[in-house]
Design goal:
With 479 residues, this protein is an alpha/beta fold. It folds into 2 domains: 266 residues, Purple Acid Phosphatase, chain A, domain 2, CATH 3.60.21.10; 199 residues, Alpha-Beta Complex (5'-nucleotidase,  domain 2). It has 16 helices and 26 strands. β7 and β8 form a beta hairpin. The longest helix has 17 residues. The termini are far apart.
Length: 479
């Protein structure tokens, strides 16, 4: 790194930590060390979204307040939201989670539909002054408008909104930083199309840039995922009075280094979260197995039942990979369902032709689909698994050739009609083209928020006949 001889600004940035709490104390320790290194010049610490992930017990049990506490203890200067904050928490829950936040949340492309304004806890842009250096910060998040509208928000075009904020900010600041939870392809477009941005700190696509990507006068940076790295950028004021990037990269986080205050806070939050998740939903006298590799198991059937009961559709289709183990006998708690079905996956409804349903069922019999590994799109399991259904009965012969194994399908007792459209309850992950391609072609799709699959399971477990129905055979193997 260059020696200090000019007016200097150090910027540290994190993104897509996804509640990997095993790393946050080590991140805080690294940040503390970097503050000591930069003691003679100002340092800025920023997060680019998806700090929260409801797969973590601490986040689920505290509804995000554990994340806020960690952000405070690490002394962030500003953050933006990712889709994991914006779409897996209701607006009220997120407002409550951020109620004790000590730094601003910056995002310019989210509006409340009712007021046409940012939520009260969010700012479009801010100016931070450190040692007479005026730093403008703007945030943008991935514009999943179809989903945001379901919770009362509108996600606006990030490039257009950034242009407005750049026009306002640029004359007032020495450095202009964009916190972009859009992904690297979008960051490239922003740098190409918009003038006046000094640095784009990126996230969402989990890209790790070992050195800044320079497009025009804009440096693009990204620090990977899960808190494994902290991004670092050094800017210096040149003779013309402008600040320019003189060094950038990503620092590996040493998991053996910890910040005591953060470690202590985490222990407290985890204990409180475990207690909060001990609420009993129901009590069972026998387990519901989930046998890996089997086409049909009772727990998978229960998941399909919960989806069909909730959506009121003719049939439901879901992958058993959403479930991570057997539902044991005894007390079924909120925490148990969170552990067994951790993905923030939402239900949806669509119309699907009979021929596409049959094709999807044929796909599910192939080992390459059952064992297919899935990453992202809200999925927190390991592999796709089999298909669980409710409202359908399938007969198949595993000895026959692929895509010719199903001999008969009935929907609610009637033979499947290839040309008929059926109303199907399924999951949003499939609509994104992940898993079974024919489901993604369904018509008249309707997404349902904010309920997750584990919320549907909780409802279904309290329905009197649900356990008995889960043992009813849907997939009939012909020998």
């Amino acid at each position: 790194m260059p020696p200090i001889h000019k007016e200097r600004l150090t910027i540290l940035h994190t993104n897509d930590i996804h509640s990997h709490f095993e790393m946050v104390s080590s991140i805080a320790a690294l940040v503390s060390k970097e503050r000591d290194i930069a003691s003679e010049s100002p340092l800025l610490l920023l997060d680019i979204g998806d700090h929260m992930d409801r797969m973590a017990v601490e986040t689920e049990g505290s509804m995000g307040q554990a994340n806020t506490d960690i952000i405070n203890l690490t002394n962030y200067d500003a953050i933006t939201i990712g889709n994991n904050e914006g779409l897996t928490f209701t607006p009220d829950l997120l407002e409550n989670a951020y109620s004790g936040l000590l730094c601003p949340v910056v995002c310019c492309n989210i509006r409340e539909i009712k007021s046409d304004l940012c939520p009260s806890w969010m700012k479009e842009q801010i100016i931070i002054t450190k040692d007479n250096i005026r730093i403008g910060i703007v945030g943008v998040t991935a514009p999943f408008d179809e989903f945001y509208r379901l919770i009362g928000w509108e996600a606006l075009n990030p490039e257009q909104m950034l242009q407005e904020q750049i026009t306002l900010l640029r004359p007032k600041v020495d450095v202009l930083i964009v916190l972009s939870h859009l992904g690297l392809p979008s960051d490239r477009k922003l740098a190409t199309n918009l003038e006046g941005i000094d640095i784009i700190l990126g996230g969402h696509t989990h890209h790790l840039l070992e050195e800044p990507l320079l497009i025009g006068n804009t440096s693009i940076c990204g620090a990977g995922k899960f808190g494994q790295h902290v991004g670092k950028v050094i800017m210096e004021r040149e003779l013309d009075g402008k600040f320019r990037v003189v060094w950038g990269g990503c620092l590996p986080v040493d998991p053996f280094q910890e910040e005591e205050s953060v470690t202590t806070a985490l222990e407290i939050h985890r204990a409180q979260a475990v207690t909060a998740l001990q609420r009993t939903i129901t009590v069972t006298d026998h387990a519901l197995p989930l046998n890996e590799g089997d086409q049909e198991t009772p727990f998978g059937n229960l998941l399909a039942q919960s989806l069909r009961q909730f959506t009121k559709c003719e049939l439901s289709i879901v992958n058993t990979g959403q479930l991570l183990g057997t539902l044991p006998a005894g007390d079924v708690t909120v925490g148990m369902l969170h552990r067994l079905c951790p993905s923030p996956i939402n239900p949806c409804i669509l119309k699907l032709k009979g021929s596409d349903i049959r094709y999807t069922f044929e796909q599910s019999l192939l080992s390459e689909y059952k064992e297919k590994q899935i990453m992202g799109y809200g999925f927190r399991g390991k592999v796709l698994g089999s298909i669980a259904v409710d409202g359908a009965e399938v007969f198949y012969d595993p000895s026959r050739s692929p895509f010719d194994r199903i001999t008969k399908v009935s929907i609610n007792g009637y033979p499947l009609c290839e040309d008929q459209e059926y109303i199907v309850g399924t999951i949003d992950m499939f609509i994104f083209g992940v898993g079974y391609d024919r489901i993604a072609t369904g018509k008249d799709r309707k997404f349902i928020l904010p309920e997750f699959l584990r919320d549907l399971l909780s409802i279904e477990l309290q329905r009197p006949s649900s356990f008995n129905e889960s043992h009813v055979v849907r997939w009939n193997k012909l020998v």
